[in-house]
Design the sequence.
DNA sequence: CATGAATGAGCATTCATTCAT
DNA sequence: AATGAATGAATGCTCATTCAT
């Protein structure tokens, strides 16, 4: 994450003492907790400070405002997902297309559904306009990871076209979000996982398998 | 849309005089405008009333509160999309799988990208918990429309499995959302449209075709 | 009731047509109903008009404002009580002191406890500063009625002293109010009635019975 | 006063710093002042805050709302009266009936008429439904104090009947209220005091003395 | 006369943020 | 560094009252 966030979103100071580090961690953790337990609307700085066990004054010593808290939280959560994907993709040395499909879907799913409530909270928080650059950047990381994995795939001879990678990543991440956000379809998660893998395989094969397939698209 | 929303989300009274009708329309339109121009956080009842050119009291004569305003807006926008999809799907009499894929994606895309800003506003508004039932219901309508179209498809012999329809609809709607919300990928819309159609074709064929039916695609 | 209320408390026009009379009565009755069922805080002009089955505009044709409604209501209710007392006292031709005590307490009690809820509502409404003159005037009527009855009493040789009449009336009306307003002592009403009569007898005898009693007070 | 008020009527937090204590006192005092000078209808939280010289936010740091302010005020004022009565009654060791009458009336009168305007404000505030339990409880305290004093009275052989105590207390408190609330009879206070004492003596004697014990009064 | 749509001042309350201690 | 009391702009909402139809 080498983003350069607007000044007012950057933490005010980097804690140097151990005590200060602990304080920042507590505030940070409390932000996540409150977001999960109360929702975005009830996420107030005073509430976060109380939950963190520090005074509101202390909170403002480290974060210039409410947005900065959210920014840091979203940044961390998105980074976790991106790192997991990047690691998993990098670990696949000579994957088949089906391997690629299964690996990507599997890893993304695990990252998101391991704590579905956290995922929903993240979706909520990232709706803020301020976060869109952060989300954008994460998507690029996922696309890059996927593209490099595909390039190492024997079935894919050239660099995978951007449109294909973009579409695939959008469909996996967006589809998963759709399912996670719809409380009514929470039961369908396992089935969706299977179908999303099949869908990915089918799409990647149609895009990359032998023959001049892309010319008829 | 035959939902029965909680009382506090229903409009307070139906205007009887012509003047009142115009007022309600103005308020309604202003809600959409403010949501688009200011975002959900800046959507205040006073702001909406001002934009609508009426007093705050007048707004509360027709809507019991801010949530009701949003509810009505989301209801209308979702209903528009669902109706377009339902009509388009119903009009396809003996579609091929590729027809199904193209038709659904095409219609959904047209509905969403005809006014992309409105679509983004809708995404924003619908992240409110109160709206989730509304969104859920709309998804069901899309799934039903898709399922019935597939059933009329000669290549599909039985009723299409729920998981397939759920996955397909989630992937199309969620993927589109992902692209629309990411300001960086706004340029990629046409390419995404093509790929999403290809993806849909590939997935539907893999789900429904028993053999290498690609020759009739 | 020959009070001269402030202009803004007087009804705006005296209805001459029969329809208008019915309208005024309906508004008036609705005011009482709303006060009883909703309390003073929820007594709104719009609510009253709706309950009366007329438009808010019509209400304002007859009453210059909310206060005027309350004023008229309180006036009527107080007048009813005063009239009952006046009639009962005037009907006693040669009462004993015990007759006086029993008659006054009995009549006041009957007037107030016949509809205890109405009485409580009246107490509420009359807390308004604007109503104090009205209450004052009613008290004077009760005092006059009591004084004239006592003067016709053979045991009372001179005109009853003002302090005695004032105290007696205050104690009967105030004591009754205390009991009626205390929801916990609602059960004690019959017992209180008996005691209040005994108290009145004892007080009047101590004030008026033969012997130079007042000189030692 | 060991009542357990509903949460929303209890103060929000106990001030720990000296500055905070002063703030709470100022708010509290301002509430009384505004109630006295403006009446219940004009008692607004903003008005109170302004009068107290603090911001509206500060007020809400200590009181959860307008009702809590009133509740605290009424509680304090009623408690003062009850404590004075309890002390005075407890101090009478072997009182005659006339002593009882004089003591109770004297003490109650002193408590109420020491600051007649405050007393009127209290009557206003206590007409709120929420306060009725508080008033009820105070009345019980007065009744208990009076009953225990009477029991120590040589002329009263058994425990005084509830009806008598209830009636007496109601008549003293209610009669006093009647006089205090009637601006026209404000001049009569001293005369009323004398008469109320005479009335109390006469009632207590009629209730407790077996014969004509007037000779020892 | 009656209607009811429209008004807007006013109120209760929240919460991000500052600053003296 | 940490505290927490204080701030006050901003928000959702009510309701007495007016006036064009």
Sequence:
């Amino acid at each position: 994450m080498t983003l350069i966030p607007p000044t007012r979103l950057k933490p005010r100071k980097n804690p140097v003492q151990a005590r200060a580090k602990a304080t920042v961690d507590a505030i940070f953790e409390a932000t996540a907790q409150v977001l999960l337990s109360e929702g975005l609307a009830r996420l107030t700085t005073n509430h976060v400070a109380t939950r963190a066990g520090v005074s509101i004054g202390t909170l403002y010593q480290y974060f210039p405002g409410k947005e900065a808290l959210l920014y840091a939280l979203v940044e961390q959560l998105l980074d976790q997902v991106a790192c997991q994907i990047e690691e998993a993709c990098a670990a696949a040395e000579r994957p088949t297309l089906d391997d690629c499909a299964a690996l990507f879907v599997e890893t993304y799913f695990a990252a998101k559904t391991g704590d579905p409530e956290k995922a929903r909270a993240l979706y909520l928080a990232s709706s803020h306009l301020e976060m869109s650059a952060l989300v954008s950047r994460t998507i690029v990381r996922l696309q890059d990871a996927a593209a490099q994995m595909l390039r190492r795939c024997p079935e894919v001879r050239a660099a995978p076209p951007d449109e294909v990678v973009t579409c695939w990543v959008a469909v996996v991440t967006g589809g998963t979000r759709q399912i996670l956000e719809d409380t009514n379809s929470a039961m369908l998660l396992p089935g969706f996982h299977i179908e999303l893998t099949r869908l990915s395989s089918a799409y990647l094969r149609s895009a990359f398998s032998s023959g001049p397939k892309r010319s008829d698209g």
